[in-house]
Queue: 3 jobs
Job 1
Amino acid sequence: DIQVGLSGGAIIAKAFEVAGLPAGVLNVIQTDVEEIGDDMLNNPNYQLVSFTGSTAVGRHIGEIAGRNLKRVALELGGNSPFIVLSDADVDRAVDAAIFGKFIHQGQICMIINRIIVHEDKHDEFVQKFVEKAKVLPYGDTSDPKTVIGPLVNAKQMEKALNYIEQAKCEGATVALEGERIGNVLTPFVLTNVDNKSEIAQSELFAPIATIIKAKSDEEAIELANDTPHGLSSAIFTSDLERGEELALQIDSGMTHINDQTVNDAPHIPFGGNKASGLGRFGNPWVVEEFTTTKWVSVQTKYRQFAF
């Protein structure tokens, strides 16, 4: 979308220009697939393609790069689970889930997309989560107190509303009914959500919280893994040692114990598994991704050969 191209492309390019970066070092091209085609992917001068975006486009890039023996670094879509285990502190879990679900109206690749709660904690979690969600300030984001601002465009708003209507038809319960105010969508909370439903398996990019009940901690992990994606994830538990063991069972590039899913830092291996991408970003991992290792040997004296 042009909105992304402006904020993530043209504005950054202008900032580097003002900072004095020499001309030609950073090149930003505003275009579309229909216009540029695959020429940049097939160009023999480029040996690596780094892409951040949808899984569908990432697969296309990967196919072409594979044919050309190019390396790829792909940061793709997510469907991040937030797991509340049977021994979790519900109040702390609710605080984290509210932040990780509604920051930037849910428009982040590693946002909490599914909240999976053990049945022993489910009702308490839903009650406290709804209480906090329904009083989140919304509207003009120039006000620092505002939490829920507008979605990126009208098309995304329509997609969000369609997800909600379909979820209702599939049997989900509306624990908190939001509303559309211009291009602002106030929080929706849906319970009795089937993990295989479209709303649970789609990357929503909207302030829509889906809560899934698990019969056991083991089932919670199974539900978390039951998605093609594997970017970020989170587990709430009072047993940190067990939390670390279960974290390794979640097939995602990142798992945060007693935290929410939206975390990043320059010194961590940021990236996903499965349909969420290939490669890791952050120092020093990104250096390995963007460079080629070469072996250079030097003989300091004449070598004797067998023949």
Job 2
Amino acid sequence: MTHPDGLFYQLIQDLAQGKGLPHLIWRLSQILNRPVLLTNSVHRVLVFHDPHNLNLDLDEFLCVPPVKTNEADFLSRSEHSLHHAQFTLNGQVFPFVYLPLLAGDYCLGYIFVLETYPAADSLKLKSLSAEDKETIFDASMPLLLCLKNSSEVSLRQEQYRDDFIRDILYNNYDSKAAIHEKAKSWGWNLQGSLLALVIDLPDRDFKTAREILPRLFNHSSPISAYINLQLVIILNINGLKKVKLKTALNNFINSFLDRLADHGKDRSSIGIGIGSGVPSITDLYKSYQEAKVAWELGKVFDHKNVCYFEEMGFLKFIFTQPARELEEFSQRVLGPLLEYDQAENTGLLDSLRVFIEYKCQIAECSKALYVHENTLRNRIKKIEQVTGFDLRRVDHMVNVYIALQVLNLGKDD
């Protein structure tokens, strides 16, 4: 049984007194007399304490191999729970042990402890003893409790902030001053020029995406929000000229995609739409709508994973028209088809969507719809009869495609 004066009880008392993760890691580091750090579930460093000031220049993220986590081993304080990793810093190899902090089947974070120091003459640091490992286990549960509490608080704050960003993007706010006052309380910089991105993740793992988002862009923290099954990122672009802005955006996006790939995400399946820069927060809704349009149009016309609205050519002029005019256009083009589907209980509109999605290729589209190619040809012929458009003509196809996208955007909103 753990002694009441031991580390476990000390850390529990610290928690009861409102002390957080930095203090707990400091206390563990002092007892072990070696560097200790704590990361979140995606290996982003949250807290680091080094009692010897070894100047370990660690990256923001620690690259460690994936490990199989087992709550039974964790709770039983089994040696199987301790894993080994090495980091090369300034040409020297530093060995660490690390312990996953598990709540059920979910890992909330990791404790990392330096095993030995490579320059043995400058620091007499012996390998971790059995007692040291017991000390790590003693600290694990209080650290897990603190991480869990921080995670729950963060989740509540995220939901509140997501609602705040949604109101901004849909022009639902009292005043510009009220926006800046609330943003300031969270340390957000929404002054000056801004830009919106939308990110589409097929697996909907937006928690991981938010946790690995780069912390800085143009000296300000990116702001993220989960809206309409997409991750929306708001960036402050004050002072960035057009050429430098494009370079900075590409670097930011590539860094983000690389991190997603490190966590098993398929880069080719991730889609990003980027709106134009706007002069103030009250215009941010425009950049957001442009980012959505850029992604939707880019999927078909550019076949790219990263799509800039500014590079959409004539299409961007079409989609900057007033929403009512776009809706009227969509109704003129697709209204007869919608009415026919409703009256005859058919799914011609869905067949049209799939037909365009598969680049008008009969063979691929028929497989996707699980119908014979001749059946699909008959459907296409009926669609042309009902709408009056010839889907072999580029100008007709562009009208139909734009009308479909307007319809889709209306559903998102």
Job 3
Amino acid sequence: MIGTMDVLFWQLVHLLLRDGYRIAHLSERGDEIWLESGHWRRPTLVRLVRADFDWSRSLRLDIEYTWQLIRQMNGRKIGKGGRVVNVYVMAYPPVDDWEFLVSKPLPLPGAADGGFETLLIHSGNADEMLLRLGDLIGVSLRPQPLAEEADPFAVAERLKHEVLTEWRRQREEERRLFDYGKPVFTKLLIIVQVAMFLVLEWSGGSTNPDVLIHYGAKFNPLIEAGEWWRFLTPMVLHIGLLHLLTNTFALYYLGMTVERLYGSLRFLVIYITAGFFGTLASFLFTPSLSAGASGAIFGLFGALLYFGTVYRHLFFRTMGMNVVSLIVINLLFGLLVPGIDNAGHIGGLIGGFLAAGAVHLPKHAAWGRQFRALAAAVLLAAAGLWVGFR
């Protein structure tokens, strides 16, 4: 019976992987596996444990430990509509009373319609519990019956080997996601904006309004007069050394990450589009003279947010909370400190998100999603231009 339940454990892992789940954690002994769904709107974490607890006290302690562990995540893994399903696969249940431990789901912070569900699958209730588990996570779970002549321990070992191979493949795939492109344009853009700063200083000063206007800063009257290139040229101009240093460091760190994720050509499209949207928003909502790469840099934040919609769990497992926190802090800073063009920042953020959606991630075409993002970007830009020039 122990070998049969070992087979069932690894079959469940296989079925979930086939349905689009990814392995988030695998213990050294292979008796505990966390899997996360790819559904970003209603995420689900499934914890599978192959264990045989003789007494319900051990089961209760493990449930409480796992529940507290999930609570400490503050909802980052599951969101408001998600759930955690804690599944024990046992040959036999504990010898004393245990049903009350799994009779009701435990609450989770922030999970309005989700929760922490525990199921105990053993040799006497496997069919019933598999149906219930399938209903909870929306997956059809129909393990192949074990042939009579098959050695269950050998079959379980084979299935385990296949899972470990798939886990290594997933980790390698995730590593490659963050190392797709080489940061060529990031370095080039830094060189260009530093060179333009030196040109401004040589020509009379980077804080001189006349010099800034001459070299292409955003100046609404001249844009209204037909100088359309001023939607793009402000990206390489900076007002003062502090402005240059701030944006250069931001471009270096964000640009390196985004260009590695998206590749150089996609990165350039995202950056220029975000810069255009940032200047357009500034043109619509701010009459003052302005310049800087801030809108384009916020567009890089937008590109990272878009990456998070495609790889939600990977995003929050790596850089997600830092990205969201930096966006919020910078927008609040822009609201509290006078002279900061927050409209340009928000416009760049939106433009970068839509541009990232239009070009999508390398080797991951999603034509419907890309078309919708492109259409939204075109319509939003057209509407902004129509409002600005009417």
